[in-house]
Amino acid sequence: MTTTAPASTALSAAGQLAHTLTDPHTVWPGGRPEGGRAWPQSLAGGASGIALLHIERARTGHGDWDTAHTWLATALHGDISAAANANLYFGAPALAFVTHRAADASSRYVRVLERLDTATITVTRKRLDTAHQRITGAERPPMEEFDLIQGLSGLGAYHLSRQPHHEITRDVLAYLVRLTEPLPDPAELPPWWMNVAPTGAPHADYPCGHGNFGLAHGIGSTLSVLSKALLGGLPVPGMASAVERICAWTDHWRQGDETAPWWPGYISMQQATDNHVHSGLRPRPSWCYGVSGTARAQQLAGLALGDAARVRAAENAILATLRDPRELSKLPEIGLCHGMAGLLHAAWRMATETDNPEITAELPCLTSRLIAALDRTNHEPELLDGAAGAALALHTVGTGHAPAPHWDTFLALA
Predict the structure, then answer these.
(1) Which residues, 6+ apart, have CB-to-CB distance to 280 below 8 Å?
(2) Cβ atoms of 261 and 254 closer than 8 Å
(3) pTM (global) more than 0.85
(4) In the 3-class helix/strand/coil scheme, how is 275-338 assigned residue by residue?
(5) 404 Cβ neighbours under 8 A, 6+ residues apart
(6) Which of 294, 331, 329, 321 is nearest to 148 (CA)?
(7) How big is the CA angle at 150 (ends 145 and 152), to the nearest 5 degrees?
(8) Percent of the chain with pLDDT over 70
(9) If you average pLDDT over residues 99-103, what whole number do you get?
(10) Nearest Cα to 330, choosing from 289, 278, 377, 380?
(11) Cis link prior to 405 (omega < 30° from 0)?
């Protein structure tokens, strides 16, 4: 018989994890790491991601603001990128995202947030100009144009959360609508089909590119952001039609049956030509490419379109996964991106959205699995694949709420 964890156990486990991440000098005894996603301003692996954990705990009364400030100051230290490499996960936009969560509860951060917002709007404008030029030239999009981590879906998620009625938010949403409008294409591929491999770069195994469903790097994040904007009642023309176009494509490629549907992570030109996805290509139920992300995007789309059957199919997808030991065994990792924390939080968010008691009933078992995995070995401290992200998922299950502005906006789950 599987032992299941009550909410209090999840909250306690989150607190213990957070305690191990209190002091930057203890977390990184050799000093702050340099390079790649370990830069302080990296949301995925740097100080800004750990700051998000402590800010959320402080906002909900389970942590202290001094710790949150220490981590935020560490993240803001040094030169902040607003160059071409800046995005929701790095540089000024990442820091704006994290600081917004702190400024919502404290006037201490208002001025720095204003400066970060200005830089983020400038970054977004440049990215929009480049994207519109690409569409006008009828070229295929690079991954970094529209995905969540590097591109305009991620920047749109931030602006929608931060300032939904600002001109920049409307402009990003208008671009996302245009992204879904057909390009001249004799092969009738969707306009978001990329001429690169799933790595984002050309590869001999993908000579004609790929179509990506995921929330991290595919059209799933665009679907989520547009659906959230529709649910918020924003008056941007064409959003409902754009959501319907994306859904038509994902419906065509949906696998399984009504009780346990699933979606590919991505498809190649060969699969598109054959109109077939082998069952062995079913992705792990992770957030980045699997059902943790794709089902939530479908649920949001169903709610935005008033499509009860789509909502039901999305919830059946996550419920079937939670009840299938074979699927759960594919996620031995702890993280939000590739592991159990991502599935746990997506399931919590979906259950909370429609008050689904069946999904809610499965959360304690998955919570126990995650806590057990955390106890087995040491883990990296980072947000996306490490302890900070697992702590946030457990904290949210333990408290039962995630106040706006939502911390999981960076995952396109809220």
Answers:
(1) none
(2) yes
(3) yes
(4) CCCCHHHCCCCCCCCCHHHHHHHHHHHHHHHCCHHHHHHHHHHHHHHHCCHHHHCCCCCCCCCC
(5) none
(6) 294
(7) 50
(8) 97
(9) 97
(10) 289
(11) yes
